[in-house]
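Researcher: Good morning. I'm working through a list of sequences from a screen, and I'd like to move beyond sequence-only analysis. For each chain I'm collecting a predicted structure so we can compare shapes side by side. This is the next one on the list. No need for commentary yet; just the structure.
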Amino acid sequence: MSKGIGDSVIRPLKNALDDMPIHVRQLAEMFRKHGQKQNRNTSAVQNLDSADVTHPLQTAWRSDTDWTPDGIVGTGKGDRPDPGDYLDGDYVRQHLDRFEGGATRFYRADNLDKYGPGNGGTTFVFPTSEIDDIIRQADGDPEALSPMLGLGDGFFGTRDNPVDVVRADFSPQQIADGNLRLPSGNEGGANPQWIPGGYLPDGIPEAVFDISDRSVGDFTPFYVE
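Model: Good morning. Structure tokens for this chain:
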């Protein structure tokens, strides 16, 4: 009986992986490893590419590149290639078009005061319109909002014990002036969960732009409510 159960799991997994482009296979593993999809059931294993890699990224990889997601991450911060070296130009343009309404990010107030808005002169941002949708989905629960934005548990504190947080909104012109672009993974703010392609592990699009101080952007206290 155990052999039959093993075959029913292993065979579809092997077939799914054999049919999957290497970049999708490696990205799927990164999204599952760093995201919140660890408890998937075995019936979903045949759809790993569509279930675990955000749809636009599945077909974004250039066919004429030798770079793989594992190779990019393994190169290490400081030596990773420009995203244009492995991502299709149309994909890059369409990704950045999602920021045409401006960009947003959140800072812990104490860290913002201590370090400023940019880590090494750049900051990660998310499309303002999509951030507003996620905030509405959280329905006033700070503990739910933190992981939804890829900020880690407890970023906003709890209802009973909130943390001082600042929301920064940047206009389309400000992010354009700051050379809005896809993250390369070489940025100071790129953490070990960074994935090539411009998405957080939970599928939220991200980009980076250059910023040196608070003269750029609208910085306001933020409360989850």
